[in-house]
């Protein structure tokens, strides 16, 4: 795996992905989206990858937004295409069968906040700042931000953030439920790794099914309860379900194989 704008390192099944444009505060340009596209193919298909951490290079920013220099002179149609591509890539993060978590190590603004929100959950360092400042540019979020912000923190808080363009600090993001934990910056990756090591010891197909069922809440084409029934039923055809229940009854640790 080799990318222009991303660093990717597999540490015992946990893929650490660093968006690596620190001089531009890791802003999301076309190259980053192309690399994320390739990266997600790898995440979905490579059995050596069990889970993923996404973070930003440097100590200042996770991602300070879409790259504003690419916004000049777009037509309506081109603007729509840009949003469509961003949404398609972020949807694949959200629907990844393998957990993808964001380690937000500084500014998560605009597309950066949207990227973090597409991840399954978020851990922030104490210096993190979140916001959707697009209104300052005469724009709105285009990569799912208007939808996911309301899902994660509720409509009133979301609309206030969207229409004011204000930033919130890590403590407020925690209070709002936007992030699960706030830790000192030097602890950020350790915290994420500890959480993922625990998740990686669980039955992978069951983990994937939990993500799929929970995502169905917001999928208008699906009935989430029916989706849960189907996914619950499917578990009974897996070797891991037999292993998990046998291990419990035999008072031993389960050894899951992802089948
Ligand atoms: N797109 C393109 N370049 C960006 C960027 C973005 N979203 N965010 C930061 N950068 C660039 C700056 O232009 C600057 O580049 P330069 O050194 O070549 O001039 C570099 O990153 C450092 O940013 P700078 O603004 O000097 O840092 P700061 O500490 O003064 O301010 C921010 C930090 C995050 C408050 C500020 O960079 C900012 O407001 N960025 C834009 C946020 C935004 O509107 N995002 C939504 C985009 S839709």
Secondary structure layout:
Elements: E1 6-11, E2 14-19, H1 30-45, E3 51-56, E4 61-63, H2 76-94, E5 100-104, E6 107-109, H3 111-118, E7 121-125, E8 129-131, H4 145-153, H5 155-164, E9 167-169, H6 170-176, E10 181-183, H7 188-200, H8 204-215, H9 224-235, H10 239-249
Parallel strand pairs: 2-3, 3-5, 4-6, 5-7, 6-8, 7-10
Antiparallel strand pairs: 1-2, 8-9
The structure holds coenzyme A.
Task: For the structure shown, list the relevant keywords.
binds coenzyme A; globular; alpha/beta; 259 residues
Please state the overall shape, judged from the principal axes of the Cα atoms: globular
| Radius of gyration, whole Å | 19 Å
Give the strand content: 15-25%
Q: DSSP helix count?
A: 10
Largest sheet, described in full? 6 strands, mixed
- Biggest β-sheet: strands ordered side by side in the sheet: 1-2-3-5-7-10
Q: What is the average of the pLDDT values?
A: 97
> Cα distance, first to last residue?
26 Å
Compute the number of strand runs: 10
Note down, in words, how this protein is organized.
Helix content is 45%, strand content 17%. It is globular. α1 links the parallel β2 and β3. The chain has 10 helices and 10 strands. The chain is α/β, with parallel strands linked by helices and 259 residues long. The strands form 2 sheets. It has a 6-stranded mixed β-sheet with strand order 1-2-3-5-7-10, sandwiched between helices. The longest helix is centred in the first third of the chain and has 19 residues, at 76-94. Coenzyme A is lined by residues 24-25, 27, 64-69, 107, 109-111, 133-134, 137, 139.
């Amino acid at each position: 795996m080799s990318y222009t704008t991303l660093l990717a390192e597999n540490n015992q099944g946990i893929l650490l992905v660093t968006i690596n444009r620190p001089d531009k505060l890791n802003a999301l340009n076309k190259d980053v989206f192309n690399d994320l596209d390739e990266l997600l193919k790898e995440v979905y298909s490579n059995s050596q990858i069990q889970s993923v951490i996404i973070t930003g290079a440097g100590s200042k920013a996770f991602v300070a937004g879409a790259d504003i220099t690419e916004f000049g002179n777009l037509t309506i149609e081109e603007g729509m295409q840009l949003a469509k591509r961003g949404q398609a890539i972020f949807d694949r993060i959200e629907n990844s069968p393998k957990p993808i978590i964001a380690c937000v190590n500084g500014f998560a603004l605009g597309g950066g906040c949207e990227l973090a929100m597409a991840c399954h959950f978020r851990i922030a360092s104490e210096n993190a700042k979140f916001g959707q400042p697009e209104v300052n540019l005469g724009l709105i979020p285009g990569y799912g931000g208007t939808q996911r912000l309301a899902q994660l923190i509720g409509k009133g808080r979301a609309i206030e953030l969207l229409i004011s363009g204000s930033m919130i600090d890590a403590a407020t993001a925690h209070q709002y439920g936007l992030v699960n934990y706030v830790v000192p910056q030097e602890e950020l990756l350790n915290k994420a790794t500890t959480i993922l090591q625990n998740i990686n010891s669980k039955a992978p197909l069951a983990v994937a099914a939990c993500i799929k069922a929970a995502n169905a809440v917001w999928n208008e084409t699906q009935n989430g309860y029916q989706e849960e029934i189907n996914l619950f039923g499917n578990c009974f055809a897996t070797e891991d379900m037999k292993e998990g229940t046998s291990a419990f009854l035999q008072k031993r640790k389960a050894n899951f194989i992802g089948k």
